[in-house]
Amino acid sequence: MPETVTPVPTADLVDRYGTELRVCDVQFRQFGGHRGFAGRVRTVSCHEDNGLLRDLLRTPGDGAVLVVDGGGSLRTALVGDLIAGAAQDNGWAGLVLHGAVRDSAALADLRLGVKALGTIPRKSAKTGTGSVDAPVTFGGITFHPGDILHADDDGIALLPTPS
Ligand SMILES: O=C([O-])CC(=O)C(=O)O
């Protein structure tokens, strides 16, 4: 069942949850057609290789947000218009890429959130090395599969996990 999470402004979430909210310190750029997006976290960890995330985004997203730890590399693009288009068509809410994109002009037309560090036209390898749904850490916070993520023009935040 698709699990849609309605995006809430991240500044409002800080006002509501205070320091319990986990806020990512990275200054991402916005590339997708949806500037505010939210969903349950899935993760990929990879380095200049997008085989794993390409295969995952070809499967139903059920409203999830894919968080990709690309090690911050800006040498190759992890996502372009084809992979992002598949994510849109398969019901993913958004992508958070600690890495680069390409086809950036086309990404703006998609019904998808896409935050990334920057752009580069060079492709990634496709060997499929890396891991899926292991916790990933960048910007001072750890993204666990199942966390609820909210993103907008102000940044990215993870809701406190119920104790
Ligand atoms: O295939 C790739 O590596 C990325 C790409 O260009 C696309 O998603 O369109």
From TrEMBL:
Cofactor(s) annotated in UniProt: a divalent metal cation; Mg(2+)
Enzyme class, broadest EC rank: lyase
Keyword Protein biosynthesis: no
Keyword Magnesium carried by entry: yes
Sequence similarity: Belongs to the class II aldolase/RraA-like family.
Record's subunit section: Homotrimer.
Function text: Catalyzes the aldol cleavage of 4-hydroxy-4-methyl-2-oxoglutarate (HMG) into 2 molecules of pyruvate. Also contains a secondary oxaloacetate (OAA) decarboxylase activity due to the common pyruvate enolate transition state formed following C-C bond cleavage in the retro-aldol and decarboxylation reactions.
Name used for this protein in its record: 4-hydroxy-4-methyl-2-oxoglutarate aldolase
Lineage of the species this protein comes from: Bacteria, Bacillati, Actinomycetota, Actinomycetes, Kitasatosporales
